[in-house]
C-alpha cells in the first residue's frame, strides 16, 4: 500500500506541475546524477519536532545524509522516527544519516556531499543556519517565519538570490488549493467588492507575558551553548509561571516554550502569521502595509503579550485600500476573536465561526469567504445561497482557475526538492515569503513599541517614531556564528 501511495504522489506531483505552467530547465547541481534519478542529498537542521515532519516530506524520495540537533536525545529520536516512517510506508530502512549537534561542523565536513538544507530550528537560529548553508552554495528551505528580525529576512533573501539558489519557506497553505480558490473567487466577483479582512488565532498556547527567568540546571542531553547560537552567552534558565497561567507546557524554553521570548521566537504573531496571513498577502497582491495600529496586554522587554489586537492599513492595489485586523490569545479566559461577518447569519455559519479557534474572513459587499483554520485549505462562502451559485458558476466555466497550482500539495519541503530537480520556483520561494514574513513582523514592531507605526519599506524604517527601529535588526551576534 505504501508503494502505491508513493507512486500516486509522484503522479500528482507531475500533473500538478504541468498545470502550474512550463518550468525553466532542470537544476544540474546534482553531483553528476541525471534528472531521471531525482535523488537529492539533503540535511535537516533542527531534526525533531517540526523538523521531523519536514524530514518526512522529503525522505521517501531523497537521501537524508545528515540530521542536526543540539539535543542528543531528540537527535537520536529523530533518526529513529525517520527509519520508522520508511518502514510504515512499505519501504526498506534508509541508510543511517550522520548525526551532528553543530550545523557549522556538519557543513565544514559534508558540504561537498549536500545539495540542500532544511532549517527547522527555533526562530533565532534560522538566519545563521540558513546563511551558513547559502555561503556553502546550498539550496535552502526554511521554516516560518524566515527570521524574527526584518533586516535578517532581507539579508537572507538577497544572499540566496545572488547565489541563484532554489528557496522555499515552510508554510503549507501556500501549496494548497483553497488559498488559490479564495483568490480566484474574490478577483472574479464572487463576494462583490472586497471591503475588509479579519484574521485570528488561539495562539499563544505556551506561556507569554511578563515572564521572569530563574536559574536552573541544564539537561545533560542539551548543548545550551549551541542552542543559544548567535545570541549572547548566558546561563541556562527556566521561568516562573505567573498565577493564572497554564503550566501545561512546563517552564522550560526548550524544546517548545521559546516562542514567547523576543530573543528566540516571535510570539503568537510570528508563529502563526505566516500561515494565517498568507492568503491575505496573496489576495492583496503582496502589498506591505503603510501603518499598523496596536493594542495588547502588558509586555516586557523579554516576552510577547498574552493577547494582541492589530490593524494593518493596506494601500490600494488590486483592491481599494482596506484594513486587515489580527487578533490573538485570550482575554480573561475568553478567546480574542473578531466579530462575526454580517453575512454569516445562519445557524450553520454561526456554529462554524464559534468552532474556529483560528481563521479568516474576507468580507465583501455581497458575501464573505470564511475559513475556520490556519491554512485556508477549505474556504467556503456565506451566505449559503451565494456559495451554491459560485459552485455552479465554476462548473459552468464562468469562474475559472487563474492561479498556478503547487506541484506537491501540502508539502512545501517536497515542493522545494521537486523544483531543485525539475526547475521552476516553489510557490513560497523567498521572492514571495521574504516580504510575507516582513508583513507579519511589522506587527511585532508595533507590539514591542506599544504604538502605531508607519513603515517606509524602501528605507526599511519606521518614520513616525524612532524607538521601534531598534527592533528591526538583531543587536549583535556572537563571534563564530554569523556567516
Helices and strands in order, then pairings?
Layout: H1 2-19, E1 41-45, H2 50-56, E2 63-68, H3 72-88, E3 98-100, H4 103-110, E4 116-119, H5 123-135, E5 139-143, H6 150-162, E6 167-170, H7 177-187, E7 194-201, E8 212-215, H8 224-228, E9 237-240, H9 267-276, H10 278-283, E10 291-296, E11 307-314, E12 322-331, E13 334-335, H11 347-355, E14 359-364, E15 368-371, E16 380-382, H12 384-395, H13 412-422, H14 430-449, E17 453-456, E18 461-462
Parallel strand pairs: 1-2, 1-4, 2-3, 4-5, 5-6, 7-12
Antiparallel strand pairs: 7-14, 8-9, 10-11, 10-17, 11-12, 12-13, 14-15, 15-16, 17-18
Helix pairs in contact: 2-3, 5-6, 6-14, 9-14
Amino acid at each position: 500500500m505504501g508503494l502505491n501511495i508513493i507512486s500516486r504522489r509522484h503522479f500528482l506531483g507531475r500533473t500538478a506541475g504541468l498545470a502550474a505552467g512550463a518550468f525553466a530547465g532542470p537544476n544540474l547541481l546534482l553531483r553528476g546524477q541525471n534528472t531521471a534519478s531525482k535523488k537529492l542529498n539533503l540535511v535537516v537542521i533542527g531534526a525533531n519536532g517540526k523538523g521531523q515532519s519536514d524530514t518526512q516530506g522529503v525522505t521517501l524520495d531523497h537521501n537524508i545524509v545528515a540530521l542536526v540537533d543540539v539535543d542528543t536525545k531528540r537527535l537520536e529520536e529523530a533518526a529513529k522516527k525517520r527509519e520508522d516512517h520508511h518502514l510504515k510506508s512499505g519501504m526498506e530502512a534508509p541508510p543511517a544519516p550522520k548525526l551532528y549537534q553543530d550545523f557549522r561542523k556538519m557543513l565544514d565536513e559534508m558540504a561537498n556531499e549536500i545539495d540542500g538544507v532544511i532549517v527547522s530550528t527555533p526562530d533565532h537560529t534560522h538566519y545563521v543556519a540558513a546563511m551558513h548553508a547559502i555561503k556553502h552554495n546550498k539550496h535552502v528551505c526554511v521554516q516560518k517565519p524566515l527570521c524574527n528580525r526584518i533586516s535578517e529576512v532581507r539579508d537572507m533573501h538577497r544572499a540566496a538570490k545572488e547565489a541563484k539558489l532554489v528557496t522555499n519557506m515552510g508554510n503549507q497553505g501556500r501549496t494548497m488549493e483553497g488559498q488559490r480558490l479564495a483568490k480566484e473567487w474574490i478577483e472574479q466577483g464572487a463576494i462583490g467588492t472586497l471591503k475588509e479582512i479579519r484574521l485570528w488565532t488561539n495562539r499563544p498556547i505556551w506561556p507569554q507575558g511578563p515572564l521572569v527567568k530563574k536559574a536552573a540546571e541544564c539537561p545533560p542531553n542539551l548543548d545550551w551553548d549551541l542552542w543559544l547560537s548567535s545570541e549572547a552567552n548566558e546561563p541556562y534558565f527556566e521561568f516562573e509561571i505567573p498565577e493564572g497561567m497554564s503550566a501545561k507546557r512546563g517552564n522550560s524554553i526548550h524544546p517548545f516554550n521559546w516562542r514567547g521570548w523576543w530573543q528566540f521566537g516571535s510570539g503568537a504573531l510570528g508563529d502563526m502569521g505566516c500561515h494565517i496571513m498568507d492568503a491575505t498577502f496573496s489576495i492583496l497582491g503582496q502589498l506591505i502595509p503603510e501603518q499598523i495600529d496596536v493594542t495588547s496586554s502588558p509586555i516586557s522587554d523579554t516576552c510577547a503579550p498574552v493577547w494582541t489586537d492589530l490593524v494593518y492599513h493596506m494601500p490600494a492595489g488590486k483592491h481599494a485600500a482596506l484594513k486587515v485586523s489580527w487578533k490573538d490569545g485570550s482575554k480573561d479566559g475568553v478567546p480574542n476573536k473578531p466579530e462575526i461577518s454580517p453575512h454569516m447569519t445562519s445557524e450553520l455559519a454561526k456554529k462554524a465561526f464559534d468552532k474556529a479557534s483560528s481563521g479568516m474572513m474576507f468580507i465583501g459587499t455581497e458575501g464573505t469567504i470564511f475559513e475556520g483554520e490556519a491554512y485556508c485549505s477549505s474556504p467556503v462562502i456565506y451566505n449559503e445561497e451565494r456559495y451554491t451559485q459560485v459552485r455552479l458558476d465554476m462548473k459552468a466555466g464562468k469562474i475559472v482557475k487563474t492561479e498556478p497550482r503547487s506541484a506537491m500539495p501540502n508539502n512545501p519541503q517536497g515542493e522545494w526538492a521537486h523544483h531543485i530537480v525539475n526547475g521552476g520556483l516553489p510557490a513560497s520561494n523567498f521572492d514571495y515569503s521574504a516580504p510575507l514574513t516582513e508583513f507579519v513582523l511589522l506587527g511585532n514592531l508595533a507590539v514591542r513599541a506599544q504604538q502605531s507605526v508607519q513603515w517606509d519599506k524602501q528605507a526599511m524604517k519606521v518614520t513616525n517614531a524612532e524607538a521601534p527601529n531598534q527592533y528591526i535588526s538583531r543587536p549583535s551576534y556572537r563571534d563564530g556564528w554569523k556567516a
